[in-house]
Design brief:
Blueprint lengths: L8 E10 L5 H12 L2 E7 L2 E8 L6 H9 L6 E9 L8 E3 L19 H8 L42 H8 L20 E5 L5 E2 L2 H10 L4 E4 L4 E5 L4 H11 L8 E3 L2 H7 E2 L2 H8 L5 E6 L12 E5 L4 H10 L1 E6 L21 E5 L11 E5 L2 E6 L9 E2 L10 E3 L9 E4 L2 E4 L9 H17 L6 E5 L5 H8 L4 E4 L1 H12 L8 E11 L5 E9 L4 E7 L2 E2 L4 H5 L1 H13 L14 H13 L5 E2 L2 H11 L12 H9 L11 E3 L5 E4 L1 H12 L4 H27 L3 E5 L6 H13 L3 E3 L11 H14 L3
Parallel strand pairs: 2-5, 8-15, 10-13, 12-16, 19-22, 22-23, 24-31, 26-30, 31-32
Antiparallel strand pairs: 1-3, 1-4, 2-3, 6-7, 6-15, 8-9, 9-14, 10-14, 11-12, 12-13, 16-17, 18-21, 19-20, 20-21, 24-25, 25-26, 27-28, 29-30
Helix pairs in contact: 5-9, 12-21, 14-15, 14-16, 14-18, 16-17, 17-19, 18-19, 19-20
The structure holds zinc ion (2 copies).
């Protein structure tokens, strides 16, 4: 009988996800007010708990819809549970104190300064006019300042700044847009910026304005940002750019630029709508854009240049004066980005623009570009870390897991309660200082997310420092083959079910193979716990081992020998290398001395880049030769070269000997590199598609995963996607992680989960 039902209702709602430190509780307060509901909300370990009371008969449906639809921009709801509760007759809707909890709390990445905060900084009547640490509930530092959870001010690097009465009032008022903004600050009570001479450390008057003047005058400055220091100079002064390169010991590696606004970027590069969206997103990544007008020395030999927009008030204030700066991470070669002056910053620049808000966690700028079908990450760090990745329900296990990744471009991942958290990009761990960064990051992630690993996962490579580190932990230790891990990262990201088989196409420079060989052009039929190599690029010698990866002409000779036997043709592009040196390497190849075999796709790119005359004699950074080939290739040319798929061996082999012979013919005919490059890319796309077709016929598998650093090549990726889609394959590729080795630790977690699930 409806008339007898009490016209009062109460529910208890638990919300999990990224809901702390993102303005979720004040949002709920306002929402409750809008609906006229009473009760309370509080942070609990795993999210927020809400008690809701209505003095009428309701199922709270519209409240829940509004909760999902109007939630704060940074919030991510991963789960929501609702159960009936006893009506208590609450007098209002209260925001209660945090409860320290056992389980998994997520935290937001650092978020670029929001529009209302920017307006305040620009407004002379505001008390935060030109204040470099202005932030609010919707913006500001998060991951880089938090020391432990729950996310409250005393547990951040803002702990040492006591709020003034004005800030305190804003902080405590649920109607204020700074309600519980933990890094809240103002000129009276917060951190401050100053300028100092690099070597003497002597403070110089004039702050940000003076810094801008010095940059304009050609000086090099270190500027403290969110996750570390940038080295900054004026890109329109070639002398300053040259000096900056000399300091970084990088002659050609692309330098990122920071521009005041989109209009400034458009003077130098083309900005498509999707690229504009990424540039303006709250994560503020560096976006690689097509060059329009070259800024000499910033990205030599390449057709793309990386731009980002200001993401802290300090950047906005600095760029207001300058319009455009080079902003590259302040690390000496092969060391992590510096976060403190004491890490040798003084030796890298003329002046330092710094401040006294400590950086807890280093994080480089993230880098992405837009492929035909969405974002393609080159580096995932500031602005994206530590967003969690959910694992398929079938794979969830109770144990905590830690995965250590590979060695180059490393990340580490931790697993707990159904989620994976992956660290920021850590760099190459064969460098001592980067290895310290690796250890520092593991300790931080374990503390922050209260992870107590019961299982460790590493690469198969017996000599990686990460493998040895894993072995010493005294935990059950799984090892995963490099390219299998690449594929698994994508399966996890796309929530592929456990029973599904996929064909993983893993193309990169190097990974330690199941047989100990140097793999890098692999077609793996796999699921989470197993992997079978169906096909590979036909192996060729790596004359001189590691040196062949640095000197592309060695690979050109290896491929010429493969294509022509002993009668290697003379090519003008190889004339830079003395005949004596070439003959020596050819002899090495013929005798097999110090020439292990490799199926690496990266090395094939090196060879072709050299044959068409684009590769440097010695590369300065990974993939330099392939990047030049990609930059030169016209993606609209669709004339393939011949290649061969040999299916009488196990695994099948893709041979590019015929491709090389055609390329040599075209080079001798003086055909333009842009046509040769495009034809080569297209040939690869067709070869990949043919293997996929055969695998579909033989094994009935029609889901393809495209992984490995080679798929950072937009020309190849777009051609391959186009070809596979026309043939009606389902194609998976990483969208939230980089296809390069940064994703290895993610795949390693997936493998460990599958193995733990397989336990009898
Ligand atoms: Zn804001
Ligand atoms: Zn204040």
């Amino acid at each position: 009988m409806p008339g007898l039902r009490p016209a009062r209702r109460a529910v208890r709602i638990t919300v999990g996800g990224v809901v702390q430190g993102v303005g979720f509780r004040p949002f709920l307060w306002r929402l409750a007010e809008r609906f006229g509901y009473k009760g309370w909300v509080k942070n609990i370990g795993s999210g927020v708990k809400i008690h809701l009371e209505a003095e009428k008969n309701t199922d709270f449906g519209s409240f829940l819809r509004a909760l999902e639809e109007d939630k704060p921009p940074l919030a991510r709801i991963e789960r929501l549970e609702l159960r009936p509760a006893a009506y208590r007759g609450c007098a209002d809707f209260a925001i209660k104190k945090s409860e320290e909890g056992e389980s998994f709390v997520f935290i937001s990445p650092d978020i670029a300064t929001c529009q209302p905060c920017r307006q305040e900084i620009a407004d002379p009547s505001e008390r935060r006019h030109r204040y470099a640490f202005t932030n609010c509930t919707d913006c500001g530092p998060r991951y880089t300042i938090v020391r432990s959870l729950p996310y409250d001010r005393p547990k951040t690097t803002m702990a040492g700044f006591k709020m003034c009465p004005d800030c305190r009032r804003e902080y405590e008022d649920p109607r204020d847009r700074r309600y519980h903004a933990q890094p809240i600050a103002c000129p009276v009570c917060g951190p401050h910026v100053w300028l100092q001479e690099a070597r003497s450390g002597r403070e110089i008057r004039g702050g940000i304005d003076m810094a801008a003047g010095l940059i304009r005058a050609g000086k090099i400055l270190a500027v403290k940002g969110l996750g570390g220091f940038h080295l900054v100079c004026d890109p329109r002064r070639p002398g300053a750019v040259r000096r900056l390169r000399a300091i970084k010991e990088r002659q050609r590696k692309p330098l990122a630029l920071m521009a005041r606004d989109i209009a400034m970027i458009e003077r130098y590069a083309t900005v498509k709508p999707a690229e504009r969206r990424e540039l303006l997103s709250a994560s503020r990544p560096i976006v690689l854009l097509q060059k329009k007008k070259d800024l000499p020395g910033t990205a030599p030999y390449l057709d793309e240049v990386g731009f980002m927009l200001p993401y802290t008030p300090l950047h906005h204030l600095l760029l207001e004066k300058l319009g455009l700066i080079v902003a590259t991470s302040s690390n000496p070669k092969d060391a992590p980005i510096a976060k403190e002056e004491s890490e040798g910053i003084g030796g890298l620049c003329d002046f330092i623009l710094t401040h006294n808000r400590p950086i807890q966690t280093r994080a480089d700028d993230s880098v992405l570009k837009l492929a035909g079908d969405g974002p393609l990450f080159l580096r995932r760090a500031r602005g994206y870390v530590p967003y969690p990745q959910r694992v398929p329900q079938q794979l969830a296990v109770p144990e905590h897991i830690i995965a250590l990744g590979g060695e180059l471009k490393d990340t580490v991942s931790v697993y707990k309660n159904g989620y994976v958290i992956t660290s920021q990009f850590l760099g190459d761990l064969d460098e001592y200082r980067n290895f310290r960064y690796f250890e520092e990051t593991i300790a931080h992630l374990e503390r922050l997310f209260d992870v107590r690993p019961r299982v460790v996962v590493s690469d198969l490579h017996p000599h990686f420092r990460t493998t040895r580190y894993a072995a010493k932990l005294g935990l059950p230790h799984f090892q995963v083959q490099h390219h299998h891990a690449h594929v698994l990262a994508v399966l996890l990201e796309h929530q592929v079910p456990v029973e599904r088989k996929v064909l993983g196409i893993a193309l990169d420079g190097y990974g330690y193979g199941q047989d100990g060989g140097a793999w890098g052009g692999e077609f793996l039929l796999c699921d989470y716990s197993s992997s079978t190599r169906i096909a590979q690029f036909k192996p060729v010698p790596l004359p001189g081992g590691d040196r062949a990866a640095r000197e592309p002409w060695r690979m050109a000779l290896a491929y010429l020998r493969e294509a022509y036997g002993e009668k290697v043709p003379a090519l003008s592009s190889l004339n830079k290398i003395s005949k004596k040196h070439r003959d020596l390497i050819l002899k090495m190849i013929a005798s097999g001395v110090n020439s292990p075999l490799t199926s690496s796709c990266g090395r094939l790119f090196d060879a072709v880049s050299c044959l068409v005359g684009l590769a440097p004699e010695e590369v300065e950074f990974e993939a330099e030769a392939p990047m030049r080939l990609e930059a030169a290739s016209r993606p609209d040319v669709r004339i393939p070269y011949p290649y061969e798929l040999l299916t009488d061996s196990d695994p099948w082999q893709l041979s590019f000997a015929a491709t090389i012979r055609e390329i040599v013919r075209d080079v001798s005919r003086k055909r333009a590199p842009e046509r040769i490059g495009a034809a080569f890319h297209y040939t690869l796309a067709l070869a990949i598609a043919e293997v996929c077709e055969r695998v579909r016929q033989v094994h009935g598998v029609s889901t393809i995963a495209l992984v490995g650093g080679v798929f950072l090549n937009k020309v190849l990726l777009n051609m391959t996607l186009g070809t596979l889609h026309r043939k009606r394959f389902e194609v998976l590729r990483p969208r939230r992680y980089s296809p390069n080795d940064e994703s290895i630790s993610v795949g390693q977690i997936a493998y460990a989960l599958a193995r733990l699930k397989d336990r009898p």
